[in-house]
Amino acid sequence: MDEPADRHTLTEKVRLGELFSVDCPSREVLKSVSSLWGVLCLISLRERTLRFSELRRSATGVSEKMLAQTLKRLEEDGFVLRHALETVPPHVEYSLTDLGLQVSERVVALVDWIELNTPHVMAFRRERAGP
Amino acid sequence: MDEPADRHTLTEKVRLGELFSVDCPSREVLKSVSSLWGVLCLISLRERTLRFSELRRSATGVSEKMLAQTLKRLEEDGFVLRHALETVPPHVEYSLTDLGLQVSERVVALVDWIELNTPHVMAFRRERAGP
DNA sequence: CAGTATCCCTTTTGATACTG
DNA sequence: CAGTATCAAAAGGGATACTG
């Protein structure tokens, strides 16, 4: 189900120079999905629906501006659903769409690997920097 | 084999605010691996060893400067191996290390999904932008 | 609370030219 | 060929103040 073996494979596209041609929208999608704040939002929202302020705390270090911008983009791309309750004070909930859940699975696989292997990377860096 | 179920899960870390704390080196690794040129290099090198100029053609639109910088970083992190033949003119070959092959698998899974689903994203964008 | 608007600084990136 | 050096342009990002 993950193998679209009936059409051009990814490596084939790379060889043909078809992958991510300069004006390809895929590059934009990759950017929003793999940016630091994009990643953090997608991962945080996997567990449950979160409010703006909760997301802010999840993504340590993010500014309001960046979070708003990131969420807007993820919403425009159909990855995140924004649900605003008409109350005072405002209460807005963000959750993943089906599409968002799907990407987030790939993103988690990548981030999980990175989390697990960053120690190796650090050790490697120190080795080659050392005496 | 992909489930480190015996320790903190990713979502747990997110809840605890442990994931990607501001000064965490994982963020750096994520950046080099998920940057546009990083992604393109990793994917291109999966198929076979490539020379600098070949990589340049693979990653359409990359400048020499960015490619050199990206490769240097991937090399420092232990993802890419640089093999320079002492000839004139110079001949340098880049290939993936074991570690590089591992990340690239996760990266490919993500990019493959994006390639396949970008049409949906585009359609979604048009819909909500429409009349 | 959940943003938007503004200002301003820093980092990234790209073009171009040059070198071993 | 495989880079480095340099400069200018652009994007990214933070702090603060303000609004519905």
Q: What does this protein structure show overall?
A:
Chain A has 131 residues and is mainly alpha-helical. Chain A is 62% helix and 11% strand. In chain A, a hairpin with a 5-residue loop joins strand 2 and strand 3. The N terminus of chain A is likely disordered. Chains A and B meet through helix 1, helix 2, helix 3 and helix 6 of A and helix 1, helix 2, helix 3 and helix 6 of B. The structure holds a DNA duplex (20 and 20 nucleotides).
In short:
Two copies of one chain form a homodimer. With 131 residues, chain A is mainly alpha-helical.
Oligomer: homodimer
> Averaged pLDDT of chain A, please?
86
CATH architecture descriptor text of chain A: Orthogonal Bundle
As for the CATH topology of chain A, it is Arc Repressor Mutant, subunit A
The count of helical stretches of chain A stands at 6
Task: Give the helix level of chain A as a range of percent.
Answer: 55-70%
Instruction: Give the topology string of chain A: H per helix, E per strand.
Output: HHHEHHEEH
Rg calculated over all Cα atoms of chain A? 18 Å
Distance between the termini of chain A: 49 Å
Total domain count of chain A: 1
Task: Estimate what percentage of residues of chain A fall within beta strands.
Answer: 5-15%
- Spans of chain A of at least 5 consecutive residues whose pLDDT stays below 50 are 1-6
Please name the two chains that share the biggest interface, counting residues whose Cβ lies under 8 Å from a Cβ on the partner chain. Answer: A-B, 58 and 58 residues
Sketch the major β-sheet of chain A.
Answer: 3 strands, antiparallel
What do we call the CATH homologous superfamily of chain A? Winged helix-like DNA-binding domain superfamily/Winged helix DNA-binding domain
Q: Given the helix and strand composition of chain A, which structural class is it?
A: mainly alpha
- Strand count of chain A: 3
Overall shape of chain A: globular
Q: Please write the CATH class name of chain A.
A: Mainly Alpha
Strand order of the largest sheet of chain A: 1-3-2
